[in-house]
Write a structure and sequence with these properties.
Radius of gyration: 17 Å
Number of strands: 0
Distance between the termini: 47 Å
Number of helices: 1
Order of helices and strands: H
Strand content: under 5%
Structural class: mainly alpha
Shape: rod-shaped
Helix content: over 70%
Largest sheet: none
């Protein structure tokens, strides 16, 4: 029971960190790639 609760707490704590990290990594990459890939966007 305690291990299950710890696992849920870790998931709750790490979820926003993962989302924030993904946003921080994707936004600059997308902003940098947008001008160069205007004509080569994948469908």
């Amino acid at each position: 029971m305690s291990w299950s609760r710890a696992r849920v707490l870790m998931r709750i704590v790490t979820a926003p960190v993962v989302v924030a990290a993904a946003a921080v990594l994707q936004v600059p990459a997308h902003a940098a790639a947008a001008p160069a890939s205007d004509w080569t966007l994948p469908g």
